[in-house]
Write a structure and sequence with these properties.
Rossmann fold, seven-stranded parallel β-sheet, two-stranded antiparallel ribbon, 9 strands
Length: about 250
Amino acid sequence: MSKSGKVAVVTGGGSGIGKAAALGFAQAGYDVAICGRRIEALEPVRREINGYAGACDVTDPNAVAHFFAGVKERYGRIDVVFNNAGRFAPAVSFGDLDVLTWQEMINTNLNGAFYVAREAFRAMRDQTPQGGRIINNGSISAHAPRPGAASYTTSKHAITGLTKAISLDGRAFSIACGQIDIGNAATDMTSTMNTGSLQANGTMMPEPTFDTRHVVDALLYMSALPLVANVQFMTVMATNMPYIGRG
């Protein structure tokens, strides 16, 4: 059972923003459960947060259900879920986009997010006291695409629809759902931005990044709200990234 009285789940918790979020929730006093595809990547984080970790491929609905069952068995309830797991694909012009790449991106970024959110919703609906908060990791690309990123952009636009639908259906069960759109947080995945990223005008340009602790601060603010209040959408980005006016 939860010792703190508040339980947070972070998917994709072994690295990057997910790892930073897991550490931040633990430091804020939450019991934290993380999942990811490779248990060896999760284990150092699990030890640091003194929490629960499970190997889970979010594209497998049965694996997602099994992970959430383990969290409920360990802690008894779930209060916050950061629906974070996702992937990128190499930039390619739309006409050259491989069907398998499209399917893999949609399967991870959209279907996986749905499987996680559905299990979270069910747990929050059925627990006592009822309710909880789901925070979906959108992206700047939920609003404006990068060149050669059709599959990623489409998956992240769909997350916005998923967020709105969960918000509406969650009202009857005290389930709040919001979306955080992150632009150029400094992680291993964004390290190449310092040397240059393809822009809409066809040029390569270095892009600024910012420390992931600001993402964690935003997540903790969203999570700390009472369930009668909700941040529906929040954008946290590098001030000088070329998103505003992209294109």
